[in-house]
Amino acid sequence: MAATARERALRRRKAPTLAWRDELQNHTFLHTMYCQNWSPSIGLLEAYDGDQLFSFNFSQNTRVPRLPEFADWAQKSGDMPTISFDKAFCQAMIEEIGPKLEGQIPVSRGIPMVDVFTLKPLEFGKPNMLVCFISNLFPPTLTVNWWHHLDPVEGMGPTFVSAVDGFSFQAFSYLNFTPAPSDLFSCVVTHEIDNYTAIAYWVPHDALPSDLLENVLCGIAFGLGMLGIIVGLVLIVYFRKPCS
């Protein structure tokens, strides 16, 4: 009976909780290869917790880092045989199985949604960057153009496409500019598969005070302060005079 009671006590005893488990977090590394009948015909994207790290240049068989800090990691090519196999398998699926399933399964489409915002807080006269964010993109084939009022903008940066969960894609396009109060920019996104066009506009709002405005406001505040001091001194002198 003594042994049985001890066993019951051990069963009732709560297992110790490891403190380090409470500090663990789940992370996701997403390695996405896609191929399609549109441009680009094949692509490889790698992301960590939703942030794109690398794309892949198949013409040069090299990884392209999204940020310069990842350049050293991009030089590692130990998985090139796996990438080559995935590329061949993906293209075989498109060429051999794709025509047999045409018309038998629905074709997915995503209507792109576009938003434009500044990378840094808006200050007139100071260099900044406009970001055109395209979400709900499928398949990942698009053209992005920037316009300033009614004129096309030259010298825009490349468009970065990244994969997200749920077999969807998103894209970013960047434009360097120096904001002015009269600016009107538009980001025009064309989904090439169906020629659907989405447009997002950007106009200045909630701008931080410029240096000139800050100097003017400081001058006005200083002038009002000096005027208050002078008025105070006059009143003190006036009330300290003896009554006649």
| Neighbour order of strands in the largest sheet | 1-2-3-4
Strand content: 25-35%
CATH H level, superfamily name of the domain at 113-202: Immunoglobulins
Termini distance?
113 Å
Question: Compute the gyration radius: what is it?
Answer: 31 Å
Number of helices: 5
Helix content range of the residues, please? 25-40%
The second-level CATH architecture of the domain at 113-202 is Sandwich
Mean pLDDT: 80
* CATH class (first level) name of the domain at 113-202: Mainly Beta
Low-confidence stretches: none
Keywords:
single chain; 244 residues; disulfide bond; Immunoglobulin-like; alpha+beta
Report on the architecture of this protein.
Its main location: membrane. Pfam families: C1-set, MHC_II_alpha. With 244 residues, the protein is α+β, with helices and mostly antiparallel strands. Among the domains are: 29-101, Class II Histocompatibility Antigen, M Beta Chain, Chain B, domain 1; 113-202, Immunoglobulins (Immunoglobulin-like), CATH 2.60.40.10. The chain is 29% helix and 33% strand. It contains 5 helices and 12 strands. The N and C termini lie far apart (113 Å).
